[in-house]
Design brief:
Elements: E1 5-8, E2 14-18, H1 20-25, E3 30-38, E4 44-49, E5 60-61, E6 64-67, H2 74-86, E7 93-102, E8 105-115, E9 127-133, H3 135-143, H4 150-159
Parallel strand pairs: 3-8
Antiparallel strand pairs: 1-2, 3-4, 3-6, 4-5, 4-9, 7-8
């Protein structure tokens, strides 16, 4: 089954649909979500992307993040992706959303927060390992560009300027 995404205009209004490949090949505006999972110490769980992934293999990523499918709202997308990535079903809280201009396209990014101590069962198709990090450590990783996915950098800059 082919996956489709909503294509949106500069104001985040749906204007069409496309496959993920078409979205990236044609640099079409679309929606993404990211979830940061915190433990009771205030640390963020990040995972390192699997080596088989086409974009940014081996880079550290938010706890869960990805594309919003056609007709899907951001909260359901975040819950779906959290389950696909970490195999958990926990409540999430919307933090903020905003435009993320990247590679000559605009991604409308909605960010969420969740609380869990784990343990998590990482999806081996997406992640090779995961670990807890302090906010200061993640900010330092971003500043030094230490194998950080660009969307993790964006999320951290938005939430912790």
């Amino acid at each position: 089954m082919t996956e489709f995404l909503d294509v949106v205009d500069e104001n985040n209004k749906v204007i069409g649909e496309a496959t993920p490949q078409q979205v990236y090949d044609q640099r079409l505006n679309h929606r993404i979500v990211h979830v940061l999972v915190f433990n009771d110490k205030g640390e963020i769980f990040l995972y390192q992307r699997a080596p088989n992934l086409a974009f940014c293999p081996g880079h550290w990523h938010t706890s869960a993040g990805g594309l919003v499918q056609k007709g899907e709202d951001q909260e359901h997308a975040a819950m779906r992706i959290l389950n696909e990535t970490l195999n958990i079903d926990i409540p999430i809280i919307k933090l903020l959303d905003g435009p993320y201009d990247h590679y000559k396209m605009r991604k409308f990014c909605t960010m969420f927060r969740a609380i869990s101590k784990g343990p998590f069962t990482l999806n081996p198709n997406l992640a090779m390992q995961g670990s807890w990090f302090s906010i200061a450590d993640v900010k330092d990783m971003v500043k030094k560009n230490q194998l950080v996915h660009p969307e993790l950098a964006y999320v951290m800059e938005q939430l912790y300027p």
